[in-house]
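User: Sequence in, structure out. Go.
Assistant: Echoing your sequence, followed by the structure tokens.
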Amino acid sequence: MRNPELWQRLQATPITMSDQGDLSALVTDTFDVRPGYTARLLTEYRRFLYLVAISDQVLAPSRPIDQVWHLHLADTLAWREYSQRMFGRELRHIKGRPKPADDAAYAQTLEMIEIEFDFEPSQPFWPSQSLQAVTRARASLAGVVASGVGIVTFIGGFHFFGLLILAGGLFYAFSGGLGDGEFAMSRRGDNSDSGIYDVGGDGGGCGGD
């Protein structure tokens, strides 16, 4: 490990928000997750920030890690204070990158986790790019099937419902649907990650350096 002192400090330092609340409590209150999951998630969040701090390359987080980062960034004062205190600079958050499944920077992140921490990253916090690709392919296949159902429904005289099903099917077929989003956390109350988690204008991912 390049900087064990930094990693120990990250593990030992609570992440507090401007209202003196704790980031872990905010994550549990915002997303549909249990406290035990949140504790493990915050460890992986710290792990990613550590890698960004020591690396001279752009790295990319997984969906759940980036959701935590966005939540932290939303409290600008808390984020800047934490970043300066831990790393001596404000780590840069880069929007508009490809989805993790397609981003070479995400592959680099997974490789660095293995090198720095001597373990193989895996679900639910670090899904492999191949697993994400399979998930998206399944969503696309479901879209093709739904499109066929929509056409049959339209021919059967149910024009409105047929067009509705066809439109949804085509979306899934050509975009991979929400396959990539299946690895993201849902917000409490609305079963979606919209609002808190801004994926960027092109629906892609984020990075940091």
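User: And one key feature?
Assistant: Residues 191-203 have pLDDT under 50 and may be disordered.
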